[in-house]
Amino acid sequence: MFRIKLLGGAKKSFLTDTIFLNESNISISQLLDVLVSIKPANTPKLDINNILIAVNGIDSSAINGKSTMIKTNDTVSVIPIIHGGASKRILLTVLQRKIQVVEISGQNNFDSTFIDELRKNFPKLKMQAICSKFVLNSSHIKKIITLSIYSQKNDILLSNKLETDILMRFALSSQISTAITLAGIKPKKNFILIALGDQKQLDQLYSQILPYTIAPLSKDNGLFLQKQFGITSKRLNSVLSKHPLEDLLVESAAILF
Known about the structure:
Strand order of the largest sheet: 2-1-7-4-5
Number of domains: 2
Distance between the termini: 58 Å
CATH class of the largest domain: Alpha Beta
Number of helices: 10
């Protein structure tokens, strides 16, 4: 017997979030056939060509793909992936670099070691965690990352690492320690995980962290950011823009030295 955890839209297809199968030593390919055969009628279709399947937290594509064998007591996670961006992540492209943005619900045991472990598991990805309150919207994220990538290209990073430069620009600080204290990951606090790299690796990362994710950027952090950085209403009103706060934050990030 093994357990199947159904995440995202897969729960709607089976009207549950967990299935136990009295099987062992079957392949992912065989499992997909079983899932199709046992799906209740009149529920949303499960698109088996657009799902990630993880075995004990490891994406099966990183093992033996559809030939990966499932054994007794394994935990298999089924995660639908919608091309162009799943419901709990934002996919961006900046200067031909793939970027994934996910908001993660704060947990007691989520601190810098959580990110360190992800970096260890996905060494080809560049990752940074930003306290959710320091992020205004997806456009703010894209502009800050663009600044950091251009800085890397022109050898003018605020730090020797791209991911640290990104954190400093969200915190509007040229001091690494200050940026970490202000805008770094903190236990029990929601944070935005930004990852840059190959799409396949980003998908594998997403499959691992999906159980902890929430709808990204659902809260308006505008008032917090105004207060945090001393941006007055008078200053906002003086900016001829449809998005004055966003433009002021990006402008301040651009002139850090």
